[in-house]
Amino acid sequence: MRKTILMMLITFLTIVNASANGRSPSAQEKKEDAKDTKSQATSSPAQTADDPAYRIGAQDVLRIDVWREDQLTRTVPVRPDGKITLPLLNDIQAVGLTPMELAGVIRDELKKYLTNPQVTVSVSEINSRRVYVSGEVNKAGAYQLLPHMTVLQALSGSGGFTAFARIKSIYVLRNENGKPVRIPFNYKEAIAGKNPEQNIELQPGDVVVVP
After folding, report:
1. pTM for this one?
2. Is the dihedral of CA 97, 100, 101, 104 positive or negative?
3. DSSP string, 116-145
4. Cα–Cα dist 75/66, whole Å
5. Contacts 24+ apart (CB under 8 A), 182-189
6. What is residue 14's predicted lDDT score, i.e. its pLDDT?
7. What per-residue confidence (pLDDT) applies to 1?
8. Sign of CA dihedral 155, 143, 36, 51
9. 112 within 8 A of 104, measured Cβ to Cβ
10. What is the DSSP string of 5-26?
11. Fold (CATH) for 130-210
12. Answer CATH for 49-125 from 3.40.50.150, 3.30.1950.10, 3.30.160.340, 3.10.20.30
């Protein structure tokens, strides 16, 4: 009798233990999944074009929707001169405006031809927020300008320097009020923590030149 009761007790404890072990990994996995999801959400930056304050730049691609006017609805690139071309309106200045501001300009112009036009402008492609790395690097070219991107960060994505690079004489070429400005950058000093102010935050269109 005692042997039977002992066997039943062992069986019961085995079932409870197995059930608990079965639940534990599942709970842990849910905890890890939630942690990973939170981490991904935190590390993934919002698209710049979704920001209502985003300013249209040259080479961006815009979607112009005019309600019930299929011939006026289209996707257009922003030219280097900052303008777009639309039927009836010809050239419209776009650079420097938010999508909502540009929609208002187009709407006001269309009132000359249409009754109460409804216009929506959205940014399909962001091509204006780029910086360039040129010269004695392994991967010269255009790079997407990330938020608060510095000279060191841009250089880190260019694949390193060639054997002929003069890393003490790097400079950022920037256009200010229509005039080119050279901002010096000494790579050796920067990585040594000297003169940290030279590791400036880049602006759209900046060119990091490695002579």
Report:
1. 0.57
2. positive
3. S--EEEEEEE--SSEEEEEESBSS-EEEE-
4. 11
5. 185/151, 187/152, 187/155
6. 53
7. 52
8. positive
9. no
10. HHHHHHHHHHHHHHHHHHHHHH
11. Outer membrane lipoprotein wza fold like (3.10.560)
12. 3.30.1950.10
Question: Alpha helices, DSSP H only, in 44-92?
Answer: none
Distance CA 198, CA 211 (A): 17
Closest CA to 124 of 48, 65, 49, 54: 49
Q: Which residues of the chain have pLDDT under 70?
A: 1-49
DSSP string, 44-100: SPPPGGGSTTPPP-TT-EEEEEETT-TTT-EEEEPPTTSEEEETTTEEEE-TT--HH
CA distance 66 to 73: 5
In the numeric block, which tokens belong to residue 155?
A: 């250089």
